[in-house]
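The material for today's practical consists of a large collection of protein records. An example says more than a description, so a record of this kind follows:
***
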Amino acid sequence: LHSSGKVIKCRAAVAWEPSKPLVMEEIEVAPPQAHEIRIKIVATGVCHTDLYHLFEGKHKDGFPCVLGHEGAGIVESVGSEVTKFNPGDKVIPLFISQCGQCRFCKSPKTNLCEKGWASDRYDVMSESDTRFTCKGKKVLQFMGTSTFSEYTVVNEIAVAKIHPSAPLDKVCLLGCGVATGYGAALNTAKVEPGSTCAVFGLGAVGLAAVMGCKNAGAKRIIAIDINPTKYEKAKIFGATEFVNPKDHNKPISQVLHEMTNGGVDFSLECVGNVAVMRSALESCVKGWGVSVLVGWTDMDDFAARPIQLIAGRTWKGSLFGGFKSKDGVPKLVNEYLEKKVKLDEFVTHNMTLAQVNDAIQLMQTGDCIRSVLSVALQ
């Protein structure tokens, strides 16, 4: 059904206010303007960052909104000036844009981009402008994407065109969690062959980091989580050992130092907890240890003793795995199709968009790695 140039009425899960369940509503999605693409969302993952905005960040100016930023779909129509996308193309909307023109896009050192919500609206996590309305009210587009809707409108600088045979209910995970963890190990930590790695937190991002360490050739990959059921999953992705901090009456960093003759070469914090960030840094070996912050949070300060860094450790952060979004995502889709990157193994639950509150609850209890919601019919 091609309704180019017309408003589309469709179903979406609306977050009217913080800490409240999402509500299935009929929303209006305006046609794409110049350089914009209207996308039919076929599948979306539920990521912890959606929960972060709803339950932790809770910035009042960030509501009402449609959450969801880990989706995949099909181009429904394109606005004027769009030349590289056509109706019917399979695409992944991106929460980090890649305009190709700004000083960050032109630098090989970073995947940040000066365009888009992320440049100055980290607190509310959306642009002030939106193509959504509901019951006469403006509804914000979370992270510029809003995949908890049957249709969304995204600027072409934040859309990746992907392989036509890609299964959308799997590759949607490359829109956030899997790309984030996998790239944090490969691009940011730059894990080396034969090295020893520790991954803190075994949700989708942490498991993807484990996979990144394995694909980079790490010899030992120590998976760390307070939920022992996560170890079997971690093994599938390449973990060689598992440590539950609750099994020990000394700091986890000390446990790791004893296991590794003074600390690991690379550690990745995939929780978004400042206390765990400190543990991850202190678990690194002096002289060359590298610790990467991967979990998203902007609530608290982190802390560490200066001697940790003076002694030669490096502390760094990673956003979307360091991948330039429009360049990186189509390549990751191809790597999945070539069986170099796992995706199916992350999906523990398949549901519909109407069950989004159940999926959120599953994630809060830690009983799932990824729930994938079917949104619009393909």
Summary: DSSP finds ten helices and 18 strands in the chain. The chain has a mean pLDDT of 93. The first strand starts at residue 8 and ends at 15. The radius of gyration is 20 Å.
